[in-house]
């Protein structure tokens, strides 16, 4: 209204001035023509440049006018039809705006700490008749911001149910939403298909299971930094389940042995070992140990120096609020191996020398007898060696035949 009033007054002044000039022209026609030729109408020196500014920054519009003379410059916001300034005087109550006159031809509008509501067309106007104006557009870009609602919060579900994760964000331009898992695991979506990233504000997971449990990241981006994300934790509840690799374990008396069970449960389970309906506690002979990894637990029971009373059935038990289960491992006795060493028979020949006075003919006969006896002993040794060689050859042949059979069986299996 103020600006319109000022424009009316200005137009009146123009009319009066024109009337005066007409009267002077009637009296002095030559001087009037000279005056009109010298008088130039104001012109815009250059167009107003459009601006794209991030929220919180400063926007600057420059309106260049040549030969303004006594005319006035005004800045207006077109969409709200608000007069912002006349000359350098600020009309609006927005204290973030200032206007300065630069180099006697540019009227510069500055908007500090730009807000999203500042977006729109801005007009620079000269109060000529008819009025002259030009416009520039301020585009305010806003980095993404994830909304608390309806974005999902941490969720707790039962195994086998369906899950919907939602993520909503605002910004200018409108942000794109991407889902991914914090640890880089695949995301299971409809149709049993798995992807590393999923684009969209709503993520549906059918028949959720324990493998889907973990942190999911909702990431919003629109090209205006910074990109933002929100962490949504998906917790899957299920009753305990036990896995036992070796249900039969053998041990000798005095040996150190270890029994092992693997448990999966969430919420976390209470785990312990039992024998003869009695809970086993940690002591010198028994050492129960647990190793946790997310919803998985490895239960180990070490028995130091197994005794006769330690053989039997051991139970590993796992319980949580959704149920309980147990598994059995049987520890049986293995007799200690007996080492038997078999030595081959040996023959010891004891030679006895007796000195006796005999007839010379008797000496010759004794030498002959000793010679015969020595020959027989030598033959016995040769026979024993031959027999040993024969047995060795038979054993070697049997081993060779066994190796050949094994090789043939291996070839048949491979083919």
Tell me about this structure.
This is Lachesin. Keywords: Cell membrane, Disulfide bond, Glycoprotein, Immunoglobulin domain, Membrane, Repeat, Signal. Residues 54-131, 158-225, 252-323 form the Immunoglobulin subtype domain. Strands 11, 14, 17, 19, 20, 22, 25 and 26 form an eight-stranded mixed β-sheet that branches. The chain has helices at 2-27, 29-38, 360-414; strands spanning 43-46, 51-54, 59-66, 73-77, 82-86, 89-90, 97-102, 106-111, 120-126, 132-146, 155-158, 163-166, 169-172, 176-181, 187-189, 193-195, 197-199, 202-205, 214-221, 228-243, 248-251, 257-266, 270-275, 278-279, 286-293, 296-303, 312-320, 323-333. Mean pLDDT is 81; it is low at 1-38 and 338-374. The radius of gyration is 53 Å and the shape is rod-shaped. The protein has 415 residues and is an alpha+beta fold. It starts with a helix and ends with a helix.
Concise account of the structure shown:
Residues 1-25 form the signal peptide. This protein is an alpha+beta fold. 22% of the residues lie in helices and 42% in strands.
- Please state roughly what percent of the residues sit in beta strands, choosing from under 5%, 5-15%, 15-25%, 25-35%, 35-45% or over 45%: 35-45%
Helix tally equals 3
Low-confidence stretches: 1-38, 338-374
Largest sheet: 8 strands, mixed
Overall outline: rod-shaped
CA-based gyration radius: 53 Å
Residues in helices, as a percent range: 10-25%
What's the multimeric state? single chain
Mean pLDDT score: 81
Tell me the number of strands.
28
SS-based structural class?
Answer: alpha+beta
Question: Termini distance?
Answer: 102 Å
């Amino acid at each position: 209204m103020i600006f319109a009033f000022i424009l009316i007054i200005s137009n009146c002044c123009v009319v009066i001035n024109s009337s005066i000039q007409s009267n002077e022209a009637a009296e002095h026609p030559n001087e009037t023509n000279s005056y009109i030729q010298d008088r130039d109408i104001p012109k815009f020196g250059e167009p107003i440049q459009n601006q794209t500014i991030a929220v919180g920054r400063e926007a600057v519009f420059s309106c260049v006018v040549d030969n303004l003379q006594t005319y006035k410059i005004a800045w207006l916001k077109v969409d709200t039809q608000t007069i912002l300034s006349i000359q350098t005087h600020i009309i609006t109550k927005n204290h973030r705006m200032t206007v300065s006159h630069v180099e006697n031809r540019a009227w510069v509008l500055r908007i500090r700490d730009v807000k999203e509501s500042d977006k729109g067309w801005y007009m620079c106007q000269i109060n000529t008749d008819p009025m002259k104006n030009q416009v520039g557009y301020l585009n305010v870009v806003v980095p993404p911001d994830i909304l608390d609602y309806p974005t999902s919060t941490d969720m707790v579900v039962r195994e086998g149910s369906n899950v919907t994760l939602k993520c909503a964000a605002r910004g200018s331009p409108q942000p794109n939403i991407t889902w991914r898992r914090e640890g880089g695991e695949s995301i299971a979506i409809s149709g049993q298909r798995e992807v590393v990233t999923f684009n969209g504000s709503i993520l549906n997971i059918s028949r959720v299971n324990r493998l889907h449990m973990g942190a999911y990241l909702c990431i919003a981006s629109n090209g205006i930094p910074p990109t933002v994300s929100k962490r949504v934790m998906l917790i899957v509840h299920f009753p305990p389940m036990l896995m036992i690799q070796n249900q039969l374990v053998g041990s000798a008396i005095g040996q150190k042995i270890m029994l092992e069970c693997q448990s999966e449960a969430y919420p976390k389970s209470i785990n312990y070992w039992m024998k003869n309906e009695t809970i086993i506690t940690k002591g010198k002979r028994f050492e129960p140990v647990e190793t946790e990894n997310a919803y998985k637990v490895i239960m180990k029971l070490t028995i130091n120096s197994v005794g006769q009373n330690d053989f039997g059935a051991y139970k590993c038990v796992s319980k949580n609020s959704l149920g309980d289960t147990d598994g059995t491992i049987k520890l049986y006795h293995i007799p200690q191996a007996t080492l038997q060493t078999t030595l081959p028979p040996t023959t010891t020949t004891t030679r006895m020398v007796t000195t006796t006075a005999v007839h010379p003919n008797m000496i010759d006969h004794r030498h002959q007898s000793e010679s015969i006896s020595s020959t027989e002993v030598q033959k016995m040794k040769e026979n024993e060696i031959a027999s040993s060689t024969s047995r060795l050859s038979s054993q070697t042949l049997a081993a060779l035949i066994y190796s050949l059979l094994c090789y043939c069986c291996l070839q048949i299996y491979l083919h």
